[in-house]
């Protein structure tokens, strides 16, 4: 299965000048790298989407970090699935814990967004994960999957990528706040089991499951490769093309 390395640039890159610097570094780091079985998805703030088309290639795709479920209308401040697709993106991150935490998004709304993305031909990257390190993580993950994928049938689930992001591990500067390889593997098995039960073993095999939360070039092998994940969602380190491409090379191995 083709691996996937997604860069969530969050609310960074503050000016056209900074963007140009990012492009320069990104192109330099990617040049000559053979990512034979890995695709990269860059998710900049939507305002940069059109400019980021410059980086698109057979290996580099674009996504956004959120969108609304309606196609158009009086929804001040929102962007629609059609806009996302027509401005050059194929992917959309949905259900990120920062959207849940700061903007009060819930499973029902995320489910509507997942369906809107799929109907528009976008590929949703659905984030699920428990808040606390200690606690019943499995129950949270299962209920998020159940609610957010409620309307998604077998014909469409292949286009969804599930991202396991333990919230406590996101942007942590502390090695104690990293899950173990076994912990990530267990989450993968749990997600897989959900997919097998809701769809079928054959369909579940076609759905990518990736890991997100403090991935860097030192831990990528342990938490993303050895755990059997199909790739990584990378926040902080995606702002540093040198590190980000290094992670992609590790995942590609
Ligand atoms: C994220 O927020 O999706 C993420 C993976 O961030 P970080 O890599 O900084 O933990």
What distinguishing features does this structure have?
253 residues; alpha/beta; 15% strand; binds phosphoenolpyruvate; 8-stranded parallel beta barrel; 11 helices; 40% helix; TIM Barrel
Walk me through the structure.
The chain is α/β, with parallel strands linked by helices. It is built from eleven helices and eight strands. Strand 1, helix 1 and strand 2 (38-43) form a beta-alpha-beta unit. It has one domain: TIM Barrel, CATH 3.20.20. The two termini are 12 Å apart. The longest helix has 18 residues, at 181-198. The chain is globular. The protein has helices at 16-30, 49-52, 81-86, 97-103, 107-119, 137-148, 154-157, 181-198, 201-204, 220-225, 241-252; strands at residues 3-8, 38-43, 60-64, 91-94, 123-128, 161-164, 209-212, 231-234. Helix content is 40%, strand content 15%. An eight-stranded parallel β-barrel has the order 1-2-3-4-5-6-7-8, surrounded by four helices. Helix 6 (137-148) runs parallel beside helix 8.
